[in-house]
Amino acid sequence: MRYAFAALLALVLVPARIAASASPEAIAVLDQEQRWVQAAATQNAGLLGKILAQNFVHINYRGAVTYREQELANVRKPKPYTEATSEQTVDFAGPTVAVVHGLNTISQRSKVVLQLRYTDVYVKQNGAWKAMSAQETQVTK
Fold first, then answer.
1. Residues paired with 40 in a beta bridge
2. Of the candidate ranges 12-21, 63-72, 87-96, 101-110, the one whose mean pLDDT is the lowest
3. Which of 42, 84, 97, 141 has the fewest CB atoms within 10 Å, measured from its CB?
4. Taking the model in full, what pTM does it have?
5. Is the confidence at residue 74, as pLDDT, over 80?
6. 104: domain CATH number?
């Protein structure tokens, strides 16, 4: 079974306690993360195209590398699993680079089949946060 887009399909839920204490920029990054997840979940390549930077690179938990155009093609394919993210944090490296870390739990038929730690890197371009990089690591039990 292939989970190559796993971090991107997660249902992002921002707990009120995090959103209330987060900076406006952190909230903007998490909002963009939510749009990314929504685009993947609804197979909306048009929306995803507005989120991914032109030089976007994705390294999945198996070590496979895909680029922007491949991600836009992959998003159109139905997925046989559901995902839920948690433990999200946003850190900044200056005013134009943000890093989101989180946990993605992947389930099939209500059974957890995989957990991935992920890192999504955003860059601020022309006033909008664009996803530049995504990487996942499988959580071992």
1. none
2. 12-21
3. 141
4. 0.83
5. yes
6. 3.10.450.50
With beta carbons less than 8 A apart as the criterion, state whether 32 and 52 touch: no
Number of domains the chain contains = 1
In this structure, which long-range contacts are made by residues 31-37, counting pairs with CB atoms below 8 Å and at least 24 apart in sequence? Answer: 32/122, 32/128, 32/129, 32/131, 33/88, 33/100, 33/120, 36/8, 36/120, 36/131, 37/8, 37/9, 37/10, 37/11, 37/12, 37/85
Please report whether residue 96 resides in a domain: yes
Residue 45 resides in a domain: yes
| Domain assignment of residue 1, yes or no | no
The number of CA neighbours under 13 Å toward the Cβ of 29 is 25
Per-residue confidence (pLDDT) for residue 130, from 0 to 100: 98
If phi > 0 it is left, if psi is from -120 to 50 it is alpha, else beta; for residue 111 that is beta
> Range of 11's domain?
6-138
C-beta of residue 133 within 8 angstroms of C-beta of residue 121:
yes
pLDDT at 60 (0 to 100) = 96
